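Hey team,

Filing this mostly as a record. A colleague (T.K.) asked me to run one chain through the structure pipeline before their review meeting, and I want the input and output archived in the tracker in case anyone asks later how it was produced. No errors, nothing strange. Just documentation.

Input sequence:
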Amino acid sequence: MTVQLLRKKFSVGQYHQMIESGILTDQDRIELIQGELIEMSPIGRQHAACVDRVTELLIRKLGQRAIVRVQNPIQLSDTSEPQPDFAILQRRSDFYAEGHPQPNDIFALVEVSDSTVEFDRTVKVPLYAQNYITEVWILDLSTTTVAIYQEPALNEYQQLQTFHSGQMLAFQAFPDTQFTVDQLVA
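Output structure:
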């Protein structure tokens, strides 16, 4: 006899109700991905140091041109509210207090990957493409490379470029502001 497991899918509204009622707390490192509650990996020292370094770099280089949101939610749909390491957002005076940023607010997303690189590539990147996020960067700490995904179509990106030590890169929205791979993943 084959037993089929049933999964309960959650909406963003239900997810927020679980937070408001205390079922989920600040101690729970959870993302809502396509209706499923996904436990996020613990943050290691290398990941934390990279996020701190890149936060300072992005804020210094992008200045008043964008909001740099660090490890906070974005709402992609009624069933997905991931927490990318960085969301480069259009400026708003309320800093998105009235609601999490949505796809039209997002210039680019950046994920810092060490132990999560496969999940980021196979789950998050297709989710971002499905929601037409223009550009996604994966900072791969294990290979010290930066993968840049552009031109979303359905569940994938039409363009993928991988950058290595010594190479320069820039966000599509800010082509005059360049970074080196070494600044991001060294």
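Quick notes for T.K.: The beta strands are 30-33, 36-39, 67-70, 86-89, 106-113, 135-140, 145-153, 156-163, 168-170, 178-180. The radius of gyration is 17 Å.
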